[in-house]
């Protein structure tokens, strides 16, 4: 199961959720809620890991390390290589991150030479873990964008909190944890899918379930009161 497969499932559930929010709170509030909770990094996890445009593997995990509220000290990516020989393509280069404010579908990874490193004043900003052997390759950013990266590398649920952000996407499952607490969970296969967004207290705020027979959307406020409860079944006669 590819990252694009579960991403399509999540996207479909978000459409159902947006419809529910349209009926309950209006389209703008529904859109804002989704944008505030789902990280911009989702677009990166839905993409292959490419260096200088060439595919090396797939991104399965992205972590943002934070020692202060909202400020990213470093980023750690876990990549499953397409081939055991692909790691050698990173030998002798500095792995530079561009367009990482925030990390997302527009983020790019480039192999910088020693001359480029000196000219750009590259500084470390985390590392990439290459599976299956666990080799680590340092990530670099240009010195003149370092502060901006620390402020804006991560955008999404818990963006202004302290503690690390851990985003995982593999085997048909997607999960976001902030400071060790699971905030967003999504899973899906050919039979259907589910999506749960939790508040800081661990209580579900949004619950979406769907399969070939229909789906449901439930939205609960901070006080535990149900605000939206939609259930639908497909008409088998059509």
State the assembly state of the protein chains: single chain
Summarize the helix and strand pattern as letters: HHHEEEEEHEEHEEEEEEE
Secondary structure tally: strands: 14
Number of helices: 5
Alpha-beta classification: alpha+beta
Helix content: 10-25%
Please give the radius of gyration in angstroms.
Answer: 20 Å
- From the spread of the alpha carbons, the general shape counts as globular
List the domain count as a whole number.
2
Spans of at least 5 consecutive residues whose pLDDT stays below 50 are 21-32
The end-to-end distance, rounded to whole angstroms, is 30 Å
Described by strand count, sense and barrel closure, the largest sheet is: 14 strands, mixed
- Strand fraction equals 35-45%
Mean pLDDT: 81
Would you summarize the structure shown here?
The chain has 238 residues and is of the alpha+beta class. It has 2 domains: 3-39 and 171-233, no CATH class; 48-152, no CATH class. It is 21% helix and 43% strand.
Explain this structure to me?
This protein folds into 2 domains: 3-39 and 171-233, no CATH class; 48-152, no CATH class. The model is unreliable at 21-32 (pLDDT under 50). By secondary structure, it is α+β, with helices and mostly antiparallel strands. The chain has helices at residues 3-24, 27-37, 42-45, 114-120, 146-152; strands at residues 48-51, 54-65, 74-81, 94-98, 108-112, 122-131, 135-142, 165-170, 173-178, 181-189, 192-198, 204-211, 214-220, 226-233. It has 5 helices and 14 strands. Strand 11 and strand 12 (204-211) form a beta hairpin. Strands 1, 2, 3, 4, 5, 6, 7, 8, 9, 10, 11, 12, 13 and 14 form a 14-stranded mixed beta sheet that branches. Helix 1 packs antiparallel against helix 2 (27-37). The two termini are 30 Å apart.
């Amino acid at each position: 199961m590819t990252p694009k497969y579960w991403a399509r499932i999540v996207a479909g559930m978000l459409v159902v959720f947006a419809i529910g929010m349209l009926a309950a709170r209006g389209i703008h509030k529904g859109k804002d809620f989704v944008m505030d909770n789902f990280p911009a990094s989702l677009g990166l996890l839905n993409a292959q890991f490419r260096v200088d445009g060439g595919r090396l593997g797939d991104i399965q995990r992205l972590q943002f390390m934070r020692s202060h509220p909202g400020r990213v000290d470093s980023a750690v990516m876990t990549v499953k290589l397409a081939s055991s020989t692909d790691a050698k393509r990173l030998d002798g280069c500095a792995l530079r991150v561009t367009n990482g404010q925030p990390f997302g579908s527009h983020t790019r990874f480039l192999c910088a030479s020693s001359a480029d490193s000196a000219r750009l004043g590259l500084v470390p900003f985390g590392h990439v873990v290459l599976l299956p052997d666990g080799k680590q390759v340092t990530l670099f950013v240009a010195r003149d964008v370092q502060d901006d990266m620390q402020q804006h590398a991560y955008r999404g649920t818990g963006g202004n909190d302290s503690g690390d952000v851990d985003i995982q996407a593999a085997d048909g499952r997607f999960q976001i944890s902030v400071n060790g607490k699971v905030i967003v969970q999504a899973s899906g296969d050919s039979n259907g899918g589910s999506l749960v967004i939790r508040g800081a207290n661990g209580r579900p705020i949004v619950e979406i379930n769907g399969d070939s027979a229909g789906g449901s959307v439930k939205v609960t406020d901070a006080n535990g009161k149900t605000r939206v409860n939609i259930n639908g079944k497909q008409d088998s006669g059509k």
